[in-house]
Amino acid sequence: MKKTIIVASLMCLAAIAGCGDSGSRGYQQPTQNQPAQKPKRPPTPEEALGIETPGKLAASVEAWASSNELGDYFKQSRERLSRLHAQLIEDYNVRKESELEATDFTRETLRKYREAFDADSTLRRFMVECYSRKEVRPLPQTISRWFTTASEDRGEMREHIRNAPAEIECLNAELVALRSEIEAAGTATWSQERELRIWRDSQIRVGDISARANKASASASALAANMAKAVRTSGGAEDVDSLNDKAEQLKTDFASFAARAAQQLEIINGQILITEFAANCKDMAEGWIAVPSALAKKKARQAEIKDLISRITSSRTRGYSDLNMLAQQTAAIKSRSRNEGDQEATLGKRVQKLAGNYERVFGSSAIYRLKRALPVSSAQARIDTELQSFKRAINLPQGTDPAGAFAGIESKAYQLADRMEEESMLKRLDDTLLTVQRLAARRR
Q1: Region 187-215 average pLDDT
Q2: Are the CB atoms for 317 and 440 separated by under 8 Å?
Q3: Which segment, 11-15, 27-31, 162-166, is predicted with the most confidence on average?
Q4: Dist CA 156 CA 83 (whole Å)
Q5: How many other C-beta atoms lie within 10 A of the C-beta of residue 304?
Q6: What is the dihedral angle through the alpha carbons of 195, 199, 200, 202, rounded to the nearest 10 degrees?
Q7: Given phi > 0 = left and psi -120 to 50 = alpha, else beta, which region is 320?
Q8: For residue range 114-138, what is the model confidence (pLDDT) as tens digits?
Q9: Separation between Cα atoms, residue 161 and residue 159, nearest integer Å
Q10: Quick one: how far is CA 345 from the chain centroid?
Q11: Could you tell me the CA-to-CA distances from 244 to 14, 79, 194, 256, 348 in Å, in that order?
């Protein structure tokens, strides 16, 4: 009996404890003074590009290598990485500002940087190995192509100096030619209004000038870099200093000209966008007005065809006396149907396409993107002006849903462009006339 009482007591205590645990589990203590989650910082250009920083080299190894060619190799390696790194960062910033993904240049330069990075890592391991052995060994074949010896550098530098006068003359001639061509092309401004074909011709012309200017500017920059290096190694030779001055001037002149050509091309590209939009507005406004009247004319012509079929069918009741006249009317309406139908189909298809592309051409998102592509407020204002003129031309009431109105005109344009129904009616007209003519011939 006692044992039973003890077991029952323990079960009660366990149940009470369980209820307590359940209560504590069901009640959550409110958290107080929890620190706010820190916003994530934007990635650095290096993180976004996925490029690593080259590793360090012990000062003792670098000092030891400064007295042999390994020090030259290490300097070449770091200069190469620094140059590629600068190109990647500049490209990244320009693309980010332009809202563009990686270009072919980005991918090509990234590949070069990673190859140079791997060569640099191999070189550092090799330098430490040589330092530990206190002997300078030949570079591993895997990276030897990346580096030049001091004697090779001197030979290369003599080659650069020897070729510099011809390069300078060639670049000067190209600069003169480019300046002449851009003057002949005329100065583009945001206030100008020209036909679309003229802007497109200018785009091709100035685009070619800009591409040549960028290519020549890169050559001038490379020449200036080589001459600057030649000055450092020539010991102040007067002829090298003169070549360096000319190269630096060319570098400056080409950079300035390339920027001017790029600015002109930007204006021309923007003017093409504006002019295309204005042309779409004009076409759509004209079509909006023309389609309903053209469709009414088409339906009236189809009613004529139906009436003509009916009169040909009933010609028998008049003794076929009017059959020749009805045949002439058939030929005339067929010719009119073909001629007017071609024009109607062209108009209908054009308006149908524009109306179907409402969101892509006239929608709020499309207008926003178009304005974003235009860098000046005056150009953006022209888009608003063209849009308002278009809405007035089609008499779109305030507060009307443009999408619904466009769907309505698109439906009418489709009916206007569709030739199937009328072609079927013309075939029936031909068949009816032929049948009645045969009946009339038998009667005679």
Answers
A1: 94
A2: no
A3: 162-166
A4: 19
A5: 14
A6: 140
A7: left
A8: 999 999 999 999 999 999 999 999 8
A9: 5
A10: 33
A11: 95, 20, 44, 18, 66
